[in-house]
Amino acid sequence: NFFDYIITQELDKKIVGVVDSIHTIFLCSCGMLVENAQKTSYNLIINDESGVGKDWVTEKTLEIWKEKKSRHHRMEGEELVETESQDVIKKTRISEKVFTYWHNPKWEPDWTWDGKLFYNEDIGESVLNSDVMKVMASTGSSATVLVNQSPVDIEIRGKPVMLVTTAQATPNSENLRRFVLLNLDSGVDQTSAIMQRQAEAAAMGTSIEYSEAVCKALTLLKRVKVKVPFADKLLGVFPREK
User: How far lies 159's CA from each of 14, 31, 32, 99, 218, in Å?
Assistant: First the structure.
């Protein structure tokens, strides 16, 4: 019952309404823990008009993972140094080719995108539909770039869960096969609803922060290979059209 408890008792503290959207965003974020997931299983575009509250809903849903971190090693000169990194990585702006150069294994030999979640708030159309993003959203990537007129191979290790929000960007046909589109309920005024929730909490003297015990419990969950015992029963309901 842990999943339902987080939705109804924790995320409900900061997000009002849009229950189906919260379910979807949190379920996709749990893809960090699935070792044998299909590469495109947990890619999500949260799409709706500006001002609806998609970034608030997404950010506050992902905030439940705020304590989850991984340990890595990186080179500092001749010394191998242990470092710690957040598993949920949020950016408000990235370039089209950033994944090519980000976390080069030459300097960070233990780094992998596996088990991590990348969240890009209000992604631009050129970045969303770029070749690097397209490949990262499906199989991970590798690249050969010129450094001082010499080709250098760069390995991009692993593939993260990818969540992006947008009001304007339109995914091309290739990304429509790689991402699930989620439209928020634009009938819910998140700003007014949250202000009302905060006023009620203040009047009752209750906290609207997520439980430290729940956040800690999420950090203790390990990545596992998932079995779906009813997978054969889904064959009859999957669409077969190309």
Answer: 29, 11, 10, 11, 21
> In angstroms, how far is CA 37 from the centroid of its own chain?
14
Q: Looking at residues 6-12, what average pLDDT do you find?
A: 92
pTM of the model: 0.84
